[in-house]
Amino acid sequence: MRLKELLIQYELQNDLNHTAMAQKIGVSTSTYYRWINEESTELKKTTLKKIAQVLDCDIEKVLNDDGECVKPILGFAKAGYDLFAEQQIEGYIEVNASDAKKGDYFLRIQGDSMEGSHIYDGDLVYVQKCDVVEDGKIAVVLIGEEATVKKVRYKKNLMILEASNPKYEPKYFTPQEIEEIPVRILGRVRFVRTDFD
């Protein structure tokens, strides 16, 4: 796990901003921002000790642990067609080394259009960045400035985005519309994660 990920995770869990976190550790805000921007990654032992006390963990062990990896949760993706694709980090999720190689980030689903594929409102989909997917694969697609999760089909010269809930009609895009709107594939959905409270 990287220091940036560890600090942001702690902030999110404790409802803190960067300034408050810097004060809590006892460093200047500018120093803390260098850590977050990964401009300064070589920390003194005394600084690591301060961070370890605040986070209540063995900081060196956590930072050197390559067995697990964390991936960010980036905003929301609508399992529909009308939500702006926000890219605010909501948090991080640990994945094992095998899954770490399969994808790049998680997106939280809003909507019911992919229920037939067992992707429900509130679920997290694990996404592998790419700009092309095979016919029939589920992908995160940007339509203008709106992100959606749909099954991608190709027929003749059309790109078709299909919901797996029959109450939603497929959307068809010509090569010209793909270029002008634009319509872009952001990544392939590798798996879905459902958390039960």
TrEMBL record:
Q: What is its EC number?
A: 3.4.21.88
The UniProt record lists the HTH cro/C1-type domain at: 7-62
Is this entry keyworded DNA damage? yes
The record's listing under Pfam families reads: HTH_3 (PF01381), Peptidase_S24 (PF00717)
GO BP: DNA repair; regulation of DNA-templated transcription; SOS response
Keywords from the UniProt entry: Autocatalytic cleavage, DNA damage, DNA repair, Hydrolase, SOS response
The molecular function terms of the Gene Ontology recorded here are: DNA binding; serine-type endopeptidase activity
Q: Which CDD domains match?
A: HTH_XRE, S24_LexA-like
The record's comment on protein family reads: Belongs to the peptidase S24 family.
List the PANTHER family hit by this protein, alphabetically.
LEXA REPRESSOR (PTHR33516), LEXA REPRESSOR-RELATED (PTHR33516:SF2)
Protein name (Swiss-Prot/TrEMBL): CI-like repressor, S. pneumoniae bacteriophage EJ-1
